[in-house]
Amino acid sequence: TWVAMCGNEGSQLVHSGARRSRASVDSGMSEGVGKIVLGSKSQTRQDILKEMGYEFEILPANIDEKAIRVPDPKDLVVALGHAKADAIQQRVKEESKHVSGKVLLITGDQVVVHEGRILEKPENEQQAREFIRGYGRSPPQTVGSVVVTDVRSGKRWHRVDTAKIIYKNIPEDVIDQLIKEGEIFYSAGGLRVEDPLVAPYLVKIEGAKDSIMGLCKADVKYCMGEACKE
Questions:
Q1: Which among 66, 49, 192, 189 is positioned nearest to 107, based on CA atoms?
Q2: How does pLDDT run across 43-69, given as a tens digit for each residue?
Q3: What span, in angstroms and rounded, lies between the C-alpha atoms of 132 and 127?
Q4: What are φ and ψ of residue 213, in 5° steps?
């Protein structure tokens, strides 16, 4: 299935890579769902949905996340998830008039909490170094939301999940390589547990790895299941 990915640079065709399969039923989906849209350009979130067996389209919200400031990290990620849905819900609704069945939009957000501070994507090399150096000193915690919107009825369901990552000190030469790769600048707190470079320094994960990577499968299943009951 080829779907349109619309971002700031126009539209391009992107293959969702997912098949309709028994996984759709197992994860709480019903036959009444005609279309799923992921409101994120995150490759990791796309990969997680594919692993779950979902077939979906991609439409990034492209909001100014820093314009939304809430002191509590759980409230913040929920507010950001709702803001992303607000930004594209009407467009998804208009572009889905021909679709039979429910049209569900999945959005969400993630931040890292470390030593009492909310960390988002590092803005520069200095900040990335500061973030990563600190993780050997004390464990960071990820806080992530999932928001599912029925774009026709306007009803929404959300959940928040947290997880903790315990690291040994990450050497400076490894931090240099991570910065050179550049992927850390697209991750909250510069955290990339899936990166082979940090694997030798990962001691333990307390929680779900998919939650740390940006989209908690259990929360997706729950919210999609609730949406399908309506």
A1: 49
A2: 999 999 999 999 999 999 989 988 999
A3: 9
A4: -80, -5
Q: Encode 6-36 in three state secondary structure.
A: EECCEEEEEECCCCCCHHHHHCCCCCCEEEE
Residue 130 token pair: 């500061």
The structure's pTM equals 0.83
Closest CA to 221 of 111, 229, 79: 229
SS3 category, 103: strand
The CA dihedral of 222, 14, 108, 212, to the nearest 10 degrees, is: 80
User: Taking Cα atoms as reference points, which of 160, 143, 120, 148 lies closest to residue 40?
Assistant: 148
The total number of residues written for the chain in this structure: 230
**Residue 194 buriedness (CB in 10 A; 0-12 / 13-18 / 19+):** middle
As to burial, measured by CB atoms within 10 angstroms (0-12 exposed, 13-18 middle, 19+ buried), residue 107 is buried
In sequence order, what are the beta bridge partners of 35? 103
Q: What is the pLDDT of residues 176-208, one digit of tens each?
A: 999 999 999 999 899 888 899 999 999 999 999
CB atoms under 10 Å from CB of 165, counted, come to 23
- Active-site residue among 109, 150, 161, 219? 109
The span from the CA of 11 to the CA of 97, in Å, is: 20
**Whole-number Cα distances in Å, 62 to 55, 68, 84, 168:** 22, 13, 8, 35
Task: Respond yes or no: is residue 72 known to be catalytic.
Answer: no
Beta bridge partners of 105: 37, 149
The single-letter DSSP state of residue 79 is H
Contact 27, 52 (CB under 8 A): yes
